[in-house]
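Hi all, long-time lurker, first post. I run a small reading group and we've been trying to get comfortable going from sequence to structure in the token notation. Rather than ask abstract questions, I figured I'd post a concrete chain and ask someone more experienced to write out its structure so we can walk through it together at our next meeting. Sequence below, copied exactly:
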Amino acid sequence: MGKRSVPDVYNLIDLAKLFDVSVSHLIEEKPDFETDKIFYDYKHMKTYIQTYAKAHKLVNTLKALPYAVQAHDDQFLKRSDIPYISHPLNMVCRLLAMNIDDDAIIAATFLHDVIEDCYKTIDDLPVDDEVKELVNLLTNEKVNDSNRPTMLKEYYTNISNNPKASLIKLVDRCYKLTKMSWGLSRERIFRTIKETDIYILPLLDVIKNTEYDNAKWLLSYQINTTLDIYKRLL
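-- Answer (accepted) --
Happy to help. Here is the structure in token form:
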């Protein structure tokens, strides 16, 4: 048997940066666990939400759902074969589980990534002005390392002026925190944790003592416990 070639530590670091994963993701033997696909059963989630929206006459939601499905067609979650539409569908299911079925909130949740990722404009959206305003607040311009702090500060300041937009962003971050384990680099994990502390946690105060106060408690628990786990493991 020939001699095995093992990259040195510097090459491993460069490879990790290239593929945007952690070094441990490249070198550690992974347990043979299977992801529970039912969690990503987007067809079931779509049917459930559509049925709920019809029963509760959520007019904007019934327009936003098929529009988002079509806009995100052929897009997938990073490092997976899971359709991207499962992300907003999952967010909406979380909102409904917290007894939040405001039509504008649900519709804007479906559309919150459409402008950034699908080459659509606000005027293209088949919804009313309130939903468009929420989507506009939630749409972030592309940032880079040089302008990131300035752009994020402005972005989250604008969101914090609207409790509905703040609620959607909190649910969005809950979802994304659960996906950090999907091979993000250590640098990206650190950045996500830091930005969650700086920009996301203050949004909890925005929805405090509002009709979303119960949701605030649940979101605070999930975000803070997830952050605590990652901080202890890093």
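A couple of things your group might point at:
The radius of gyration is 19 Å.
The chain is about 65% helix and 0% strand.
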